[in-house]
Amino acid sequence: MAAANYQRSEDQFLCSICLDVFTDPVTIPCGHNFCKNCISQHLDTMDQYLCPMCKKAFNTKPELHVNTFISGMVAQFRQSAQQKSSSSSSEQQESKPGEVSCDVCTETKLKALKSCLVCLTSYCETHLEPHQTASGLKRHQLIDPVKNLEDRICTKHDKPLELFCKTDQTCVCTLCPVLDHKTHEFVPLREEYEKKKAELGNTEAEIQQMIQKRQQKIQEIKQSVDLSEKDADREIAE
């Protein structure tokens, strides 16, 4: 209901010319309201003075009267919409339990949008801006926000772990194949992740099937035991 009222109020405050919320609303003699600049420009470009809404014709250029009532309502509407937008934005950005928080925020910890593998720091929308504008920071590698960024950096070469050494079964950086794993086999870390994930899924499916078979076997044994007990009770009774 509140959303419907909000939408209906917005429709009431839209100028039919610019289709935006009224700015300096004025009324012409036929009773329709428009932005002052919109209706002025409209009348100046028309050969005949017509109302854009009802098409009522005027012999002379109609006088524009400031609509104080609409002006007050529009001001309240703009203030309410701004407060609602600010409140919604704050709720979305504030970090929640389990989410990665911005490492730079000092008071309210906001939700991090990206983590930098060079700075080893997670940033919210505001503190991420230098990495999007400064030429030196634009070259930094940004990833989706994660915790424990130190674990994603090669301890030998201080480079992001981007490869997987299949020989040693470990994550390595791009310098490791050149310096420490010259004859080893490497694949991109993402590729190995997808492969391990698929293998884990297959293993989980096999385990689930095994559990279901064991449960079925246990149920059969239980039923057999119940029948044996009933037969024994019947024989004792006889």
Verbal overview:
- The chain is built from seven helices and eleven strands.
- The chain has 238 residues and is an alpha+beta fold.
- The strands form four sheets. It has a three-stranded antiparallel beta sheet. The chain has a three-stranded antiparallel beta sheet with strand order 7-6-8.
- Residues 1-8 have low confidence and may be disordered.
Counted by DSSP, the helix tally is 7
The percent range for helix content is 40-55%
Alpha-carbon distance between the two ends: 75 Å
Number of strands: 11
Question: Reading side by side through the largest sheet, how are the strands ordered?
Answer: 2-1-5
Residue-averaged pLDDT, rounded?
Answer: 80
Keywords for this entry:
about 240 residues; alpha+beta; 3-stranded antiparallel β-sheet; 7 helices; 11 strands; about 45% helix; disordered N terminus
In short:
The chain has 238 residues and is of the alpha+beta class.
Note the topology.
Elements: H1 2-12, E1 25-27, E2 33-35, H2 36-45, E3 49-50, E4 57-58, E5 65-66, H3 68-93, E6 114-116, E7 121-123, H4 125-133, H5 135-138, E8 142-143, E9 163-165, E10 170-172, H6 176-179, E11 186-188, H7 189-237
Antiparallel strand pairs: 1-2, 1-5, 3-4, 6-7, 6-8, 9-10, 9-11
